[in-house]
Amino acid sequence: MVNTEPLSEYKIMELLAQIPDPDIPVVSIVELGIVRDVQVDDASKVTVTITPTYSGCPAMSVFKEDIRETLLKNGAKEVDIKISFTPAWTTDWLSESTRYKMRKHGIAPPETNSSDPVALFSSGKQKIKCPHCSKTDTNLTSQFGSTPCKAIWFCNSCNQPFEYFKCY
Amino acid sequence: MKTKEAIYTYCLRIADSNLILGQRLAEWCSRGPILEEDLAMTNISLDLFGQAETLYEYAASIKGNNATADSLAFLRVEREYCNRLIVEQPNGDFAFTMVRELLFSSFQKNLYEALYKSNDEMFKGFAGKAVKEAKYHLRHSSEWVIRLGQGTEESHRRTQWAIDELWRYTADMFEMNEVDEELISMGIAPDLKEIQKLWIKSVMSVTAEAGLTIPETPHVIKGGNDGIHTEHLGHILCELQYLQRAHPGASW
Ligand SMILES: [Zn+2]
């Protein structure tokens, strides 16, 4: 695709909003909240600032490659990716529509505000809504799941296991 | 001591501890008592490696001289590692690993909470993220120590034994030297004596609920800050560094 239109910051955000999270493809990296800043100079050199999710998140290197590839394909002459650690990424940044998409994808979104100690501690007492049937008769199977960001739960109403995106 | 040099060493202390504990936990891969625990321990390992990488990168940026996170992780010798001694202790049985996890993650959680108030922007950003992970690790190990302590006679016996064995390495986590003095004076790192008070409180709340006792400690083993290790670190490094030593610069 040949693109003659000069890259604007708005256009870059639009492009980035099309890059899916490799682990939850229904959610883009912009919706996930990892893109913190975008700048472009007159020579179409783009600087994207991203923030890591979990410290050991293996998806981070995929994010970086995808961002670089997408922007270079769409008119950027050079792409510089900066990592910012403050403010620390939190699941509180996930919007309602992102949470809705996760639920439709079969993943229960984080339910409590991450600054609430209950979210991190008494998971035994916490009840997570099943993304399949919306009932709350559910149990934690394992705090750790298929990726660092997810726990495994089980729904006693529809007898289905499901993943829960942990509060962070 | 200059501040930069102190920050460099402080990074290595935390990163080395995380790298070595991550390696220990990874030894459980495919050997966990149940699938969920296999996943849990390797997930915790991944968090620890990620935290280590962040601080190795920071340390490498201070050191310059073409240092990288990888060269710091893989190309130093045993005496240059300043991890806490408790993390290099062998896994033992599942109870032993969970007690080690409890003792270390409660230290980490309290340390990170303090580092989140650091005057150093990088430490602050790192700690804000890492503390959330440490809380998950602490919750995981606390729940298991309580379950095992209150479980059968056998699980109680093994868990108590693990506490008795590991306790001698706990004082080492709070050892300070001129690195701490410099960073405390600059408002960059906390006084570990304060962290120790918070730590003992959180550990005792778990052991009390588990029906376990904290041992009197006639014998204390220290040396992590000075690179004086127990005999176990050399063996871990053999395995950990093998690839980079045999094929320098290998990547994939
Ligand atoms: Zn259900």
Question: Overview of this structure, please?
Answer:
- The complex is a heterodimer of chains A (168) and B (252).
- By secondary structure, chain A is of the alpha/beta class.
- Chain A contains 5 helices and 7 strands; from the N terminus they run H-H-E-E-H-E-H-E-H-E-E-E.
- Chain A has helices at 9-16, 29-32, 59-73, 96-104, 117-120; strands at residues 35-40, 45-50, 78-83, 107-108, 138-142, 150-155, 160-165.
- In chain A, a hairpin with a 7-residue loop joins strand 5 (138-142) and strand 6.
- The radius of gyration of chain A is 18 Å and the shape is elongated.
- Chain A starts with 8 loop residues before the first helix and ends with a strand.
- By secondary structure, chain B is mostly helical.
- Chain B has one domain: Ferritin, core subunit, four-helix bundle (Ferritin), CATH 1.20.1260.10.
- Chain B has helices at residues 3-26, 35-63, 69-74, 94-115, 121-149, 153-166, 178-185, 192-210, 232-246.
- The model of chain B has no long low-confidence stretch (mean pLDDT 96).
- The A-B interface holds A 52, 54-58, 84-89, 114, 120-121, 123-124, 141-146, 148, 152, 166, 168 and B 36, 39-40, 43-44, 46-51, 53-54, 121-122, 124-126, 128-130, 132-133, 135-136, 139-140, 143.
- Zinc ion (ZN) binds at residues 130, 132-133, 135, 155, 157-158, 160 of chain A.
- Zinc ion binds at residues 130, 132-133, 135, 155, 157-158, 160 of chain A.
